[in-house]
Amino acid sequence: SLVLGIETSCDETGAGLVRDGVLLGEGLASSADEHARFGGVVPEVAARAHVSAVTPMVRAAVEAAGVSLSDIDAVAVTAGPGLSPALHVGVAAAKAYAAALEVPLYGVHHLAGHAAVDVLGHGPLPDRCVCLIVSGGHTSLLALGDLARDPVEHLGDTVDDAAGEAFDKVARLLGLPYPGGPSVSRAALDGDPAAIAFPRPMTGPRDAAFGFSFSGLKTAVARHVEAAQDAGRAVPVPDVAASFQMAVVDVLVRKALRACAERGADTLLMVGGVAANRVLRTEMERACAGAGITLRVPVPRLCTDNGAMIAALGDLLVRDGVEPAGLGGTAVPTVPLTGATITFPPATG
Ligand code: ATP
Ligand code: MG
Ligand code: FE
């Protein structure tokens, strides 16, 4: 079957068309430029951009795939988590397509979509694996079974900031543009990752084995920047960026490898926007190779938000015969990752 996926949880408007694990077409627009001067995503601005972009992106996906709307057999949409006004645009659009085309609608969890997208590049997921999700709003180590059906087991989550959030906040501290991940990693190219010994939070023997904490690291960067300014020295932006980046990477690599060892996992799936980071990919690959673990990471373009990931997950659900949602619900801005689908709460009133 041909599955249309729609993603509008943050500032990317994405549409994707997937059939049997193959990406046929995509449309992707971003309102990131409109948020840049605010240093972060403004929900109402993002929602308006989704309203303008959502049907053109679906049209772009349909044209790229060389199909017509009437060929679509099911629609999947990010139902949560995300920015409330942004999510509602995608959910409303997806309902309209599903109703007009008389096809089933799946409300899916955005983070499960981040994981599912790897199927498009690397084929079916193994029966079980450890998954590291590193995104703008989440950082978790998970034990995954069948992504479409099985409950997701959380081995550990961040107790404060997500890894991507730390990149975004450090970018602001260093006067680098939003989104912070790409700009910090670009600045880091000219820096020395060993220049500043930033802390590696939660890696001590008495810390929660698979928990993360990145807010203290951000504070350490802030203190370093302030100290330089107070002393009338120029902030060594490339060195700070490179040293911060290496601290994050070091923590993620250590914890992910520890989780794989504990669970006896031979595959590590690394997903989410921060998984686009070049140094993280290189260091994780090196560590996994040394430990005999197969590392699966989507191509960088598919790590950040897009419609293909939601279509990929919808395709898994359809092929697994999972029951679709009705058309009577609304988006759920805050929802933990317990499984692939989200039951839409009925609209009240
Ligand atoms: P979530 O998926 O948790 O709801 P989100 O959808 O906003 O959050 P993603 O699109 O998955 O997040 O990822 C965006 C995040 O990834 C941002 O914090 C961004 O700074 C970070 N990011 C993107 N590219 C890179 C990179 N090359 N290096 C580091 N971080 C990056
Ligand atoms: Mg984004
Ligand atoms: Fe995301």
Automatic annotation (TrEMBL):
Residues 24-311 form the Gcp-like domain. It catalyses: L-threonylcarbamoyladenylate + adenosine(37) in tRNA = N(6)-L-threonylcarbamoyladenosine(37) in tRNA + AMP + H(+). SUPFAM superfamilies: Actin-like ATPase domain (SSF53067). Substrate binds at I133, V134, S135, G136, G137, D168, G181, N277. It is an enzyme of class 2 (transferase). It is found in: Cytoplasm. One of its GO terms (biological process) is tRNA threonylcarbamoyladenosine modification. Binds 1 Fe(2+) ion per subunit. Its cofactor is Fe(2+). Fe cation binds at H110, H114, D305. One of its GO terms (cellular component) is cytoplasm. Keywords: Acyltransferase, Cytoplasm, Iron, Metal-binding, Transferase, tRNA processing. Its EC number is 2.3.1.234. Required for the formation of a threonylcarbamoyl group on adenosine at position 37 (t(6)A37) in tRNAs that read codons beginning with adenine. Is involved in the transfer of the threonylcarbamoyl moiety of threonylcarbamoyl-AMP (TC-AMP) to the N6 group of A37, together with TsaE and TsaB. TsaD likely plays a direct catalytic role in this reaction. Belongs to the KAE1 / TsaD family. This is tRNA N6-adenosine threonylcarbamoyltransferase. It comes from Pseudonocardia alni (Amycolata alni). The lineage of its organism: Bacteria, Bacillati, Actinomycetota, Actinomycetes, Pseudonocardiales.
